[in-house]
Amino acid sequence: MDNSNPGKDISLEDIKSKFPLASKKNDNHFSEFSVAGVQFGPNKCPIFAGPNMVESEELIKDVAINIKKRGASFLRGGAFKPLTFPYRSEKYNETRERGIEWMQLASSYADIPIITEIMEERYIPLVSQASDILQIGTRNMQNYPLLTACAKTKKPIMLKRGFGCSLRDWLGAAEYILVEGNERVILCERGIVAPHTHRSSSRFLLDLQVVPAAQEVTHLPIVTDPSHACFWRPWVPSLAKACVAVGSNGLMMEVHPKPKEAAVDPLQAIDYETFGSLVIQLKEIGKACNIDVGN
């Protein structure tokens, strides 16, 4: 690791004093830890899969069974959702406490650990009791009181990159968690704002370059989320393959039994068959790159 010229956005002084806990000490420094029996570390790429919204008990149980047998390591799903607009309908609505309960039931039913988003400090006891990993979403990446409160639970935390934030901002946010003594921090790239995104429905671009860039300066694992980044189902498999090839330390994808009928983000979710065949291909790419993909 060449600390003499860390990069455009990150200075040597940043590494020394702004986020010393998030910074690599040497080229071989990499966080390795286990969550519910799933290993995180170099040459590991666990898969997080599931619907954007936990719509019903029946649906999330069905998803849990089907993604696990196809290679997923974690069940993901949102019960508390920071939806872009405040308007709701019977279909387009948060399931909140019921959704958390359904996630727990699905986890036990399929014997698969779960990750779900935490949005407010008042729900930390509920969500931390239910979820194996607490997810901090992109809109809350710099909500430092929330980060600090979640860190104190000592639960593993996935910190999604803010879609307008630099790598420097991202590592600064991670430091708020690490300084509380919580060392099981996972970073997640989920797309950034850009002038051109190639489709009118795509609001973000997947920043694959940030994976090796981050791995030069931080020991924390870097997960990628191609589903949220591209917002377009046909592109997800190609981007997921690229994520593994570039060295991602985890992969998050939206999977739904009937993607076009998904309550939230129906344009980006893939179905079970697509997910299953994709995991097989991802494992082959992983073999070529010396990366262990999935469960």
Compile the SSE list and pairings.
Layout: H1 12-18, E1 33-35, E2 38-40, E3 44-45, E4 47-50, H2 57-69, E5 74-76, H3 96-110, E6 114-117, H4 124-130, E7 133-136, H5 144-151, E8 157-160, H6 167-178, E9 185-189, H7 210-217, E10 222-224, H8 226-230, H9 236-246, E11 251-254, H10 272-288, E12 292-293
Parallel strand pairs: 3-12, 4-5, 4-11, 5-6, 6-7, 7-8, 8-9, 9-10
Antiparallel strand pairs: 1-2
Core attributes:
295 residues; alpha/beta; TIM Barrel; two-stranded antiparallel sheet; 12 strands; 35% helix
What would you say this structure looks like, in words?
- This protein is 35% helix and 14% strand.
- The strands form 3 sheets. It has an 8-stranded parallel sheet with strand order 10-9-8-7-6-5-4-11.
- The chain is globular.
- The protein is α/β, with parallel strands linked by helices and 295 residues long.
- It contains 10 helices and 12 strands.
- It has helices at residues 12-18, 57-69, 96-110, 124-130, 144-151, 167-178, 210-217, 226-230, 236-246, 272-288, and strands at residues 33-35, 38-40, 44-45, 47-50, 74-76, 114-117, 133-136, 157-160, 185-189, 222-224, 251-254, 292-293.
- It has one domain: Alpha-Beta Barrel (TIM Barrel).
